[in-house]
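Section handout 9: paired folding examples.
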Amino acid sequence: MNEPLYRDVVVVGGGISGLTVAWHLKRAGMDVVLLESAASVGGCTQTQRRDGFLLEKGPFNVIVRDPAFAALLEDLGEEARVIQASPVAKKRYILHGGRLHAVPTNPLALLTTGLLSMGGRVRLLRGLVYSKPLGNHEETIAQAITRRLGRETAETIVSAAVSGIYAGDIDVLGWNACFPKIAEHDARATSPIGYALRTMLSRRFAKRGGDDSLVACTRDVGSSRGLKPAARDAQTKEDPEERKRRSKIGRANGRETSARKRKWRGLVSLDGGLGAITETLARRLGTDVWTRTNVMAVEREGDGFLVRIRRDDESGEGSSLRCRRLVLAVSATPAGRLLA
C-alpha cells in the first residue's frame, strides 16, 4: 500500500451538502478532497437531460428562505441561473375519485373541497377549533394529522402535499423531523387557528419593526393554558435597554431575510434543473472530487484521522488519506458504519 496522502480536510459524500462544505473550505484556502462512491456526484440533487426534457432525480423546485442558500445561489451566478415558477404553476390539483380537484389554498376552500366527504369536513372543522396536544412521544405525519384533523384529511390532502415535498410515505416520515416548527406548536397548543393568528400577528408586527415582546405575548393564543401570571409579570418587568437591544437585532435579521425573499419569491428552479447546483460545485472543485471511491474505514490517528479508501479503477487497489478534519456528509447508516 502506498504512503498515505495528506489533506487538511476529507469530505465523505458528494451530495449537495458535501459539495457545498468542500467548496466553502476550498475557498477558505483549505487543501480538501471530496470522496464519492458513485460514478457521479449530486446525490438526490441530480438532473438528467433526455430528448430535450429535464428529468429531476430528486427535488424539482425550492423555496429560497435560508439566507445561506440564497448566498450560495448568488455565488454560483450564471452557472446556476435561478428561474421563477410560472404563475400557472401555482394551481395544483389532486386526482381523487377519478376527478381532478384543485388543492385547497384557504380555510373556506378546505371546508368546501370535493376531496373530503361531509364527515371529513366536519372532522377537519372540529380539529381546526380544538384538538388534543401531543404528548412526549414521536409521531408519524399520518398520526399527527389524523389526531389533529382526521384520517381523511391526512390521506387525501396532506399525503399528496408531503409526497411533493419529500417523495415519501406519511405513515413512515416523522412529524417532528419533517415539520419541526409546526410540531413545536402542536406539542403545547390546542388550536391550529390560534397558531395561524399568532403567526400572522408576529409577521405584521415584525414588519413594522416593533417590540417583539408583543410577539411573545401572542405565543399561546388558542392554547388552553395561555401565559401564566408569572410570565406576564416577567414581560412587563423586562429591562427597557434589553428590550431595545433585542428589537434592534430582530429588525436587522428581518431586513436581511426580507432582502433575500424579495429577490426570489415563491417556488424557483434553475435553468438546467436543480442539478446545476451540484454540477457547478463539482466543476469548481475540479480534481478535488474523487468519484467511484469507497471509504472502507476511518481511524483516529493522533490529532487527525486516517481514512482508508478503495477506488473502483482498473487496479482496485486500496490506499489511504491522512487529514486534520473529517466531514461525514452521508446518511446515518454509512456514517454509523464508519464511526462504529
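Moving on to protein 2 of 2.
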Amino acid sequence: MSFFRRTTGVQTDPAQLVRDLEQCRGNTQYYLQTMNGLLYALKEFSFDIAEIKAEEFKKRIDEFGKKLVSGDDIRSISDRFAHDKEYILAFIAKEKDYLRDREGELRNIIELLTKGLEALTGANEQFNAHIYEGNLRLERMLNLEDLRKIKESLKVEVEQMKTAIKEKQEKDAQQREHLASHVKGLQVDLAKAQHASMTDGLTGAFNRLALDQHLNRLVERCSMSWEPFSLLLCDIDDFKRINDLLGHQVGDRVLMALVQHCKSLVRKDDMVARYGGEEFVIILPGASLRQAVKKAKTLCNIVAQARYIIDNERPEEKLGFTVSIGVSLLRRTDTAQAVVERADKAMYHAKKGGKNGVASERDTH
C-alpha cells in the first residue's frame, strides 16, 4: 500500500515565516506607539475647560488607549472607535464653539480699549491744535510795538493755556477712570468665573475638576523633584440614612459643616475638595503618613463631638454625625489614581472597624 502527499509548487520556509511574524509584531508595536502618541497629542491639544467637560473627554481618550493595548479582537476595537469617533468630533465642535464665543468676548474687550485710546488720541489732537494756535498768537504778539498791549495779550494767552491744560487733564482723568472701571469689572468677572469653575457650589470646597488637576500636578512635580504628600479621604458615616430620615436640606447642611471643620484644620497650602457625594479629600503637602493620621484623628474627634440644631423652632433636638477617614502617602511609582485608591481602601477598612475612625494604608496589609 502506498501513500501519496499533495505538494505545491511553492515551498514554505519556516525561518522566513518566523522573521515575517517578528516583523509583524514589530510593526504592530510601532503602530500602537504611534497611536498612543497621537492620542496623547489629542488630549494635550484640548483645553482644560470645565464648561465643555474636558476632563471627561481626556478620560475617554485614555480608555480608548487602554482598549488598543488590551488584546481584544479587531472588531471590538473597531466598534469602540466608531462609537468614540462621534464623541471626539462632537467635543472638537463644542471646543471650537467655546473658543469662538471667547474670541468674540475678547474682541469686545479690544474694541472697548481701542475706543478708549481713540478718545484719548482725539483729545490729544485737539489739545495739540489748541497749543499750536496759541503759539501762533504768541508770534503775532512779538510784532506788537506797544509793551502794554504785549503784556495784556500774554496774560490772556496764559490764562487760555491754563484753562486748556486743566480741561485736558480732567478729560484724561475721566477717560482713565472709565477704562479702569471697565477693566476692573472684567477682571472681577474673570476671577468669579475661574473660582466658580473650580469650586463646589454647595460646600465652597474645591470641586472634582480642581482636585484632579491639582493631584496630577503634584504627582508630575514629584517625578522631577521629590516632594511627597499625604492624602485623606473622608466619608460621612450613614449619610444616606441622614438624608432619608431628615431630608436633603439637612444633608446639605451636614456636608457644609464637615467642610468647615476640614478648613479649620488645614494650612494655607493644603487642599480641601469634594470628591463626590459625601466623600471629601484633603491633600497635605509635605506631611508624613504619621502626621496625616494624627490630623485625621483630630478631625474625626472634632466632628464626632459637634452637635447641630436641626430646626430653630426645636433647639433641643440636635444632630450629630461621624466620619471614617482613610490615609495614604504618595510613593515614587504612584499615579494620582493609585494614591487615591489606597486611601479609599483604608477608609473602607475604617468603616469595617466600626466607623467613626481612621485607618492608614498600612492597616490594610
